[in-house]
Amino acid sequence: MSLETTQIQDKLVETFGESVFHFNQEKDIFSFEIAADKITAVILFLKNDPTLRFNFLTDLCGIHYPDNVLERQFAVVYHMHNWYENKRIKIKAFINGENPEIKTLTTIFPCANWMERETWDFYGINFIGHPQLKRILNMDEMVSFPMRKEFPLEDGGRTDKDDRFFGRTQSNK
């Protein structure tokens, strides 16, 4: 018997109540939001439940929503896969923009180590309990987080670049 999205939703709501919400089917991926403080419990449940068996963390990434209210300025998105039923889910946990932090998943999925480091490196999201949260792609001396929306896309002081070569033209006046 194949695993249906209604089964996933029913089990999650039965176990976690209002901490799981905004269920949505997007093409072949079932998605939902969770309260950030429940991340460890929800992930463990999805992995260890004998029916659900989401035993593979495919991806983990951050998103910055600077126009959202402070409590929802950052999100951590988790993609999980049930190999037995070939079912995929996406979990989104919003976190506070003033102090973006969420618990690490490295004790549940060791593969989360580098994904969390990358997310910290680019968004500044602190993964509480991570064994070695340090820069992975950017220089250690960097003080900013380049994927945040307030980070400038280009250096306005550059003189060695001609916008015509990048598909941007200056309007004739």
UniProtKB/TrEMBL annotation:
- InterPro entries attached here? NADH_DH_suC, NADH_quin_OxRdtase_su_C/D-like, NADH_UbQ_OxRdtase_30kDa_su, NADH_UbQ_OxRdtase_CS
Which SUPFAM superfamilies does the entry mention? Nqo5-like
| Compositionally biased spans, kind Basic and acidic residues | 154-166
Region listing for Disordered, in residue ranges = 154-173
Tell me which EC number(s) this protein carries.
7.1.1.-
Cellular localisation? Cell membrane
Which residue ranges does UniProt annotate as crossing the membrane?
none
User: Transmembrane among the record's keywords?
Assistant: no
Example GO molecular function? NADH dehydrogenase (quinone) (non-electrogenic) activity
* Organism superkingdom: Bacteria
> Catalytic activity annotated for this protein?
a quinone + NADH + 5 H(+)(in) = a quinol + NAD(+) + 4 H(+)(out)
Residue ranges annotated for the NADH:ubiquinone oxidoreductase 30kDa subunit domain, each copy included: 33-154
Regarding the membrane, this protein is recorded as: Peripheral membrane protein
Role, per record: NDH-1 shuttles electrons from NADH, via FMN and iron-sulfur (Fe-S) centers, to quinones in the respiratory chain. The immediate electron acceptor for the enzyme in this species is believed to be a menaquinone. Couples the redox reaction to proton translocation (for every two electrons transferred, four hydrogen ions are translocated across the cytoplasmic membrane), and thus conserves the redox energy in a proton gradient.
What protein family is recorded? Belongs to the complex I 30 kDa subunit family.
Could you describe the subunit structure of this protein? NDH-1 is composed of 14 different subunits. Subunits NuoB, C, D, E, F, and G constitute the peripheral sector of the complex.
Q: Which NCBIfam families match?
A: NuoC_fam
Entry-linked HAMAP family: NDH1_NuoC
- Name assigned to this protein: NADH-quinone oxidoreductase subunit C
Source organism of this protein record: Flavobacterium fluvii
Provide the organism lineage as a comma list: Bacteria, Pseudomonadati, Bacteroidota, Flavobacteriia, Flavobacteriales
